[in-house]
Amino acid sequence: MPLSRLLAISFLSISLLKLQAQQPSKPTDDSKPPSANSSEPDNKPEGPSVDAAKVTGSRFDSQYFKFTCELPKDWKALDDAARVAANRSLAEEEIERAKLHAAGKKNDPHQKNAAPASSPGSSTENYSLMVASPNGVDSMASPVLPRINIWANKKLPPLDRPVDHIQFLLAGRRTRLLNRPQEVIFDGHTFMRASVITPAGDYHSEYVTDLGDYLVGFDFRAQSERELVEMTEIMKSVKFR
Questions:
Q1: Is residue 6 part of a domain?
Q2: For residue 30, is pLDDT > 70?
Q3: In this structure, what CATH number is given to the domain that contains residue 200?
Q4: Backbone angles phi, psi at 83, to 5 degrees
Q5: Which end of the chain is less enclosed by CB atoms within 10 A, N or C?
């Protein structure tokens, strides 16, 4: 190799080494501003939770959905702290159920080409807002009659419209129609309602409305048609704000 070419290559190599040495090194994590090393930001939603509600005297108040109604005189509601705790427990069970379902589909060779399973975040969200009866109830699952349930379900197909819930109510085997489905309006909000007699002989009426991402329902269960009619009178007291 000619001497001149060797000197040129040596000179180029030395120049590259000097250039690299002059470039500032990347800052370490310790050199980042304190905010960059802080913990994850708090992503808790502001405002009341979906099931935030309370009964004061005979007045029911949903802080999240911003409406009130008057319960029948002297009725007693399930303790709000117990109701919220039960909602949380049911939500955790639903998340675990969704995880097991997703894992089962993943391990099933027959499901390889099936649509991806829903993530736990897309599982159902069903909330009890209130349960009440003349003598009180000891749990959300109490079968005592008469009673009123107010609930909120996140809209997910196939139950993402008020009419879907009403059709589900009517679809029960040996269920007898008492009042056909119809739209009614309370305080400017449209509800879909229907009434049936269940196979067990209970009188059951449901009013469902669409409130944003959720369907909110009033569920009335009684021992006679007269008792049911008297209970559903509270719908006239529903007020939105």
A1: no
A2: no
A3: 3.40.1000.10
A4: -65, -45
A5: N
